[in-house]
Structure prediction request, 162 residues.
Amino acid sequence: MPNFPQAHRAPIDDTDRAILRVLAENARTPNNALAETVGIAPSTCLARVRALRDRGIIRAFRTEIDPAAIGLPLQAMISVRLRAHTREQNESFRSSAPDLPGVLAVFHMAGSDDYLLHVGVAGPEELRDFVVDHLTTHPAVAQTRTNLIFEQIPGRRYLTGG
Prediction:
């Protein structure tokens, strides 16, 4: 069994799942509205949300920003393969990738690619410049592959099962 913290092994019940569904749709839902939607008392709801945070199940409350609205209409997923799988090369890339201009998310992967970068840029020239100036020049990077994103469709399936 993987070595997950005990908090992640503790099961959540249907009420917790209902709370998570509402918060995943709108993290700014006021506690009273959340409690009413889920069918529990506001004090119980507040205690459950705190417990979900304390257990690491709720990791953050975020504002999701439309990249196009801030001048980044072209999005891509760029897979990155490192030259060697040493701790040094992994750490070098891992520590610098989130700070590169236009990086929206970084995923450390298993499989044929080592990292997957979700980037947003103003246009094709900026995307080319990003790859050429920031990825192919990085000493740890051996290869990149770029895939354009036509549409992002959020998933919520993990909140429906038991």
User: Anything to note?
Assistant: The two ends are 19 Å apart (CA to CA). The beta strands are 74-82, 103-108, 115-121, 141-149. Helices lie at 6-9, 14-25, 31-38, 42-54, 87-96, 124-135. The mean pLDDT is 90.
